[in-house]
Design brief:
By secondary structure, this protein is α/β, with parallel strands linked by helices. The protein is about 45% helix and about 20% strand.
Length: about 300
């Protein structure tokens, strides 16, 4: 007995005709009729009453129909479960501009790994434009990007604000800037500046902040993580969102610290983005929810510290 035999008999019963069932199933009528007869011979009962006006379920067929339906429903559940297992066990790819990597991304990935032991998580560092392109093309499932308050959200994406911070100057504790309560633009210009390359939000912000003025010396690098390492090595200062520095391992070790910028009320937002889609793989949805949950925890802790 094959499941398609059961599917065929239910189609004939539903449509009341071997011809109409054959058309719907894209089979020849003789082939469908022979399949049904083989099932009847195997079961030892006539499932259909064949008349000139069409085919209807026989009394014996009506008695067996609930069992046939039950088998088909069980097969559907099996297929659905197998499909879900495939969706859950796939790789989830996250693009990030390397902001809030330690306080946000690392705990979320750790928690996700415990709940999804067979799912691989690939974290890809990239610029915001590259992340958006990969999200649109399906190369990434989720993206963590910075934006300045008031920036437009790209069309076709779902965006969730995770963290809201302010730009700060990241320096070594022995830097002259660390002795100040806040750092002015003039202070910043007097120090070697480690700037993000063009394409990062913080590059755009610093360019606007300096208003055409040039620092004493500058480096360019990709992403906050390399910027913090360069600061730790004494190469200069960099400007990052505070949520990229607070609770970073280097900050906890006392290797780097940060100071606010004087007279600046700019807000930097860390956004979680994904492409709008009718269905989302379960693993990607779980990781998305994990980011949202962790961001709420961080925001609540920050609010408690402020009180």
């Amino acid at each position: 007995m094959r499941t398609e035999q059961l599917e065929y008999i239910t189609a004939v019963t539903r449509l009341g005709s071997l011809r109409r069932a054959a058309d719907e199933l894209r089979l020849s009528q003789p082939a469908l009729s022979e399949t049904v007869r083989n099932l009847e011979r195997e079961l030892g009962v006539d499932l259909l009453e064949r008349k000139r006006s069409g085919a209807t379920m026989s009394a014996a067929g009506r008695e067996l129909l609930p069992y046939i339906v039950h088998v088909l429903e069980a097969v559907d559940r099996l297929r659905a479960a197998a499909g879900e297992q495939h969706r859950i066990s796939r790789m989830v790819r996250v693009g990030t501009v390397n902001a809030a990597t330690v306080p946000l991304l690392v705990p979320v990935v750790r928690e996700f790994r415990a709940a999804h032991p067979v799912t691989q998580v690939e974290v890809v560092g990239a610029q915001q434009t590259d992340i958006h392109r990969a999200l649109s093309e399906g190369g990434l499932d989720l993206g963590l990007v910075n934006q300045l308050d008031g920036d437009d959200v790209p069309a076709g994406f779902e965006s969730t604000r995770l963290l809201c911070g302010r730009p700060v100057v990241c320096v070594r504790p022995d830097s002259p800037l660390a002795s100040r309560a806040s750092v002015t633009v003039d202070d910043l210009l007097a120090e070697p500046l480690i700037a993000m390359r063009s394409g990062y939000v913080m590059h755009r912000y610093v360019h606007r902040l300096l208003d055409g003025r040039a620092p004493s010396f500058s480096y360019s690098t990709d992403g906050a993580e390399m910027g913090k390492l360069m600061v730790a090595e004494g190469l200069g200062a960099t400007v990052l969102p505070d949520f990229s520095v607070i609770d970073d391992p280097l900050e906890r070790l006392g290797t780097i610290t940060y100071r606010p910028l004087a007279d600046d009320a700019t807000r930097v937002l860390l956004m979680l983005q994904r492409r709008r889609a009718e269905s989302v793989p379960r693993a990607a949805q779980d990781l998305y929810e994990g980011f949202v949950r962790r961001a709420r925890e961080l925001s609540a802790a920050e609010g408690a510290d402020a009180r």
